Amino acid sequence: MMLEVEGAPAYAYTGGHAFEPDRPVAVFVHGAQHDHSVWALQTRYFAHHGLNVLAVDLPGHGRSAGPARRSIAALADWLVALLDAANISETMLIGHSMGSLIALDCAARYPLRVTRLALLATAFPMTVSDTLLDAARDREPDAIDMVNQWSHSSIAAKPSCPAPGFWLHGANQRLMERVAALGEPHLFHTDFSACNAYAEGLQRAAALRCPVQIIAGRHDAMTPPRASRALTDAMKQANVSVETVMLDAGHALMSEQPDATLTALFSFATRRV
Amino acid sequence: MSANRFDTLVLHAGAAPDPTTGARATPIYQTTSFSFRDTDHAASLFNMERSGHVYSRISNPTVAVFEERVAALEGGVGAIGTASGQAALHLAIATLMGAGSHVVASSALYGGSHNLLHYTMRRFGIDTTFVPPHDADAWRAAIRPNTRLLFGETLGNPGLDVLDIETIADIAHSNHVPLLVDSTFTTPYLLRPFEHGADFVYHSATKFLGGHGTTIGGVLADGGTFDFTSTHLFPEFTEPYDGFHGMVFAEESTVAPFLLRARREGLRDFGACLHPQAAWQLLQGIETLPLRMDRHVANTRKVVEFLLAHPAVEGVAYPELDSHRDYALAKRLLPRGAGAVFSFDLRGDVAAARRFIEALTLFSHLANVGDARSLVIHPASTTHFRMDAAALAAAGIAPGRIRLSIGLEDPDDLIDDLKRGLKASQKTVSSAGRSSDGSRA
């Protein structure tokens, strides 16, 4: 689906099912240097099981026009503008990595728009090392190599994603290269800088008004499970309902454990609250 | 995790201890079909909402290990195992285009590939123009508005023409079509075509990947680089496909719509899948690919050196020789070696070549390459036996042309065997009416 958001074309994948006005909505937000396709299996299942799905391409990523936004808050504002453009009054928000911070910020600042919040491979602070930031700015191919290696916990995740026969390391590498080639200058650096600079995580976590699910990868080298603890504590202190699901995966949860990720997300999306 | 290198990937990519039994080697999943957990699980597998196996024509756990391993070795995004190399080529063509389309192909092709393009696909409305692999202008000039694919072999048949992948890929991409490369003779150990711009790669895995002359199989790998959304030429990927739930493959996967369609349509409908036992046997071969290819190449170099110095040999066509037209290109693209299949011209005629073949005891006389054992064939009396001398000359095949596929034996034994054959080839035949070189008097 193509929409006009903040004056520019924006794309959202609907899970292979036509958008129907009366169904509950789930909006999926990808991470740095990615696009909607990282959610291929989960979104397709949601869309064929009673929910409307929008898996967005963030500005400057995939099929959405730039410029890329430079802060998590600006990306959260863009996401709400996208909800407005699609006439969505309220939605479940699901974010991965950088996308989890966008979803968190959006849910806290626009509480009437967000009914549930799922944070995958999240962390606060989401610190990005100077080495990686420098590589992202000056040697993007090296940064892509590094992140790709750190994103996977296995060279034999089964079943592969989106289908048997896919080599997850190659597919993730090529996706980041394809996003880099779209023309948005220093996109990886822009995304990482936004993560690194985000300082409002605990404040936003305490301001949430909807139930939260955190899905972590036991072997995640980018955002290890312990890195989400501060967020969980802030939520609990503010009496926010929060559950944590631990999966046998690395940072690339949706492709290394597509079924377990889907099962956790769909259960959270459809249970009564 | 840290990146694994090639010699590690040949053993581990795509395979882990079996989660049910702990079996360390990849098990053979000898089953046609796979049970569903419940009706929703069944429906979601059919609609590609979950990943998993339904029926072994579409996917199989043993075959998937083979596919993922080849994709890892090639540096691609995924692969599909097929019943043979020919099935892989057909799958690529049938996925990319339909009747009314056109292919530009190198004229230096394996005979089976030439047959498929020149005769069989033409019967289904897909036309092919063959061009000399070295002639970039000919590739450009052959492209038509309905061209959907450029295609060549990394090492062409029969003269081992080295494909300038980067140049041909540039021509393909400036015309918004992909480049498919047959990499059978080189394997990913000697050459990784994706690194030079190819979009799709296939192998007759029967040859060096399997490596033991036991198993027919093929594999088609996707580099994930070709952007089908950048052109209107491929509605098969950018518009809903009624044959699979209205799926728009390029929306579903940014990097691999080709693989999705090839599996969901091509394997489903044409059905030329790889058998799990064959996949397992091919995996055993791949585990030793680097060791074997190094030995294949080392043996080949010794045999080439021997043949060059032998008075009964008129010439040797091997790209590592500076007499070969692609010497410089081979040096750049194939630093680890130019493979283990090559041809040489024997002094004499067809009869001399026959005497040569029949005197060999170690080389096996058969129509294959890439075996652990050394192989020999004489094109003029086998694959091209219907051609007379004039037709052979027109095809550039000398009557004394011999093709060798060098195996893993002790190279000195191979050379001893060749010495026997060469000596026999040059013997005077005393039978009535024949001269010393076997031609009719």
UniProtKB/TrEMBL annotation, chain A:
GO cellular component assignments: membrane
Highest taxon, organism lineage: Bacteria
Gene3D superfamilies: alpha/beta hydrolase
InterPro entries assigned to the protein according to its UniProt record, in alphabetical order: AB_hydrolase_1 (IPR000073), AB_hydrolase_fold (IPR029058), AB_hydrolase_sf (IPR050266), Epox_hydrolase-like (IPR000639)
Pfam families linked: Abhydrolase_1 (PF00561)
Single GO term (MF): hydrolase activity
Keywords, in A-Z order: Hydrolase
PANTHER family noted in UniProt: HYDROLASE, PUTATIVE (AFU_ORTHOLOGUE AFUA_2G14860)-RELATED, MONOACYLGLYCEROL LIPASE
Identification of the protein by name: Putative HYDROLASE PROTEIN
AB hydrolase-1 domain ranges (all copies): 27-256
Keyword Chaperone on entry: no
